[in-house]
Design brief:
The protein is mostly helical and 346 residues long. The protein has helices spanning 19-30, 32-39, 44-56, 62-85, 87-98, 100-114, 127-134, 139-148, 151-160, 163-175, 181-197, 209-216, 221-234, 236-244, 257-266, 269-277, 281-289, 293-306, 311-330, and strands spanning 178-179, 204-205. The longest helix is centred in the N-terminal third of the chain and has 24 residues, at 62-85. The radius of gyration is 26 Å and the shape is globular.
């Protein structure tokens, strides 16, 4: 039989309480209105689990409530410190406030709960600042960092590097398979120290053709072209592997009719007209074929009215549309064919 929370004859140390019970005590302490707002952000299984646990709790003593809330507050502080300066920084702050043993216990549990990944503390840093920190590093070091960061951030950093260095970093991202945790920690520590001044023992999966393709899909077209051209010249096999995973504006002709029509409903008309100014004839024709005659004629008139346009503006518009397509793919609303990886089952 489940013990009653708060019974003095059977006290239970907070550290030994199940996580679901401690979460339920926090919700009870917050009151109905705040608890309801918290539950809105949880999935159905989590809500059912917590509400069942709350229903089972008959009484919460003031001492137990205070202890659980104190631990909850410590976990929030630890999480904010990890985001701000990394795990070692968080542990140092907590040690000063709570002592070495308590700090180690909190950090250990929080790392397990959050599944902290390499370079998590660097992910919130402005890409421009990251570029300044990385641009004079060895290409292998830059590749290691970019392979662990969100593709959007890595794309901005990669675009800011000198063209020759871009290609060197790109090749190393593709060639990277797994990174030693000792090397990752060392590089992350150096970056954290530099940013402040101005996990586990498993090997971390990073790099490969897919990682580079994700970065290039979010980079500007000139960066993408320069890197692919260099790869084609020096490592054609790698270039082909990357291109299989890369979706460029011209690949819109590989989408199905339904998918193209869905994309057209989502993109801005002026962006589409600007993007088509620099598109091959076959791409234009596919777009026209998936529009009504009136809409297609209106699009042609818009393009003519624009007159001469700058190449970088055309490429920016094309990249906007590619971003829309990628977002629709991630939402499962369109299917992007990537060679042999997308076989159709009937």
């Amino acid at each position: 039989m489940d013990p009653v929370i708060g019974m003095e004859e059977r006290p239970v140390p907070v550290a030994q309480l199940p996580a679901v019970r401690k979460a339920s005590i926090v919700l009870i302490s917050l009151g109905q209105e705040l608890s309801a707002n918290v539950l809105k952000h949880l999935n159905r299984d989590e809500i059912e689990m917590l509400t069942l646990e709350i229903a089972r709790i008959k009484h919460v003593s003031p001492d137990l409530r205070d202890a659980v809330l104190a631990e909850f507050s410590q976990m929030i502080v630890a999480q904010e410190c990890i985001i701000e300066g990394g795990i070692e920084y968080a542990q140092g702050v907590l040690q000063q406030a709570l002592g070495k043993e308590t700090a180690s216990e909190i950090i250990s549990r929080l790392v397990t709960m959050l599944q902290v990944q390499p370079f998590d503390s660097v992910k919130s840093v402005d890409p421009t600042q990251l570029l300044q920190l990385l641009q004079n590093e060895h290409p292998q070091t830059i590749a290691l960092v970019l392979a662990h960061l969100p593709p959007e951030t890595s794309a901005m950093v990669l675009s800011g590097l000198p063209q020759k260095l871009q290609a060197q970093v790109a090749i190393r991202i593709v060639g990277m398979d797994r990174a030693s945790p000792e090397v990752v920690r060392e590089v992350e520590g150096i970056l954290q120290a530099r940013i402040t001044a101005t996990g586990t023992q498993d090997f971390d999966k990073a790099g490969g053709p897919s990682a580079l393709a994700d970065i290039l899909n979010r980079a500007d077209r000139s960066t993408e072209r320069a890197i692919l051209d260099d790869l084609m010249e020096n490592s054609p096999e790698i270039a082909e592997e990357v291109k299989k995973r890369l979706f460029v504006f011209e690949d819109i002709i590989t989408l199905g009719r339904r998918d193209i029509q869905l994309v057209l409903r989502e993109v801005d008309g002026k962006d589409l007209a600007l993007a088509l100014k620099g598109a091959p004839e076959n791409v234009r024709n596919v777009i026209y074929e998936n529009m009504s005659e009136r809409a297609a004629q209106s699009l042609r008139e818009e393009m003519e009215f624009m007159g001469a346009v700058r190449l970088r503006d055309v490429e920016a518009a094309q990249q906007k549309i590619v971003s829309v397509i990628r977002a629709l793919e991630e939402a499962g609303e369109v299917v992007i064919s990537r060679g042999e990886e997308n076989e159709t089952i009937i």
